[in-house]
Automatic annotation (TrEMBL):
Name assigned to this protein: BTB domain-containing protein
Highest taxon above the source species: Eukaryota
InterPro entries: SKP1/BTB/POZ_sf (IPR011333)
Amino acid sequence: MASLTATHMQRVFTSRHIKFIVGNKGTCYTISEAALDRICPDGSFAYYLDFHKRHRGHHTGMPQIESPKLSDTVTWDVVDEDVFVRLMEYAYRGDYSVPALQKLDDKASLNHEMHCLDSRLAIRGDQCPNIASFFFELGKQFQEEAMKPFSHPNQSASVAFIDDIKQTDRVGHNEVFLCHIKLYQLAEDFRIRSLENLCEERLMKSLLFFPHHEVAIDDLFKVVAFVREQNMEHIRGILLDFFVIEFPNLRTYPEFSELIMGDARFGLEFIERLPGGLHSQWQA
């Protein structure tokens, strides 16, 4: 999705402006309708803004219309303010910012540090016998999907995002994962397919490149809990694939057993994806 052209910029300044009341603090934003139309070519934004009706989405909650007049006011009290800001970043410039990880001075506290999935996939598959090769092949498939070329609005921004997530002395992965996931929710509600694709791509890259130290893994389990609570089927499937690939490394964490045993559906689907030997062993 390209940045605004001169023609689009002129439309932004001349089109109707919509007042958004966002988040639990009720922060007010004024947004150009032309910018909204750019990201919803099917008119889904116009539908919710121009008709005097209430509608709530299956995830984040659609806007509640207070007035159908030209100066429409839309209340999004259930949408996080930072998610709304990133949606508007995408509307105006075709990209969105990603939270930067925080540097941890005491790296010694990151015990049980492990390499990211991407670096471990550098091992040749024929060096991994039997069951181990199964996880290697799944990992390569995940890697290929994550690195599949999408239409990047900003190549340099994508490179900077990956460089940040790779750093081993950083924390705050929960905010990065949830940034992509929550924005995906909103994009899914409004059928903004290009943004859905971008969020999915960046989530998969985050999973592929983040270092597996204990703080980051703890954040990962928090993210899984959020996705389960929100009933996000597609994102849940991505996380399930990742957990199957990383089973040899994640099985030592007590949170892993709690997840598999505590969520019957997740656990069953997880077990069914394991190779035969591990499948019967886990069921036993």
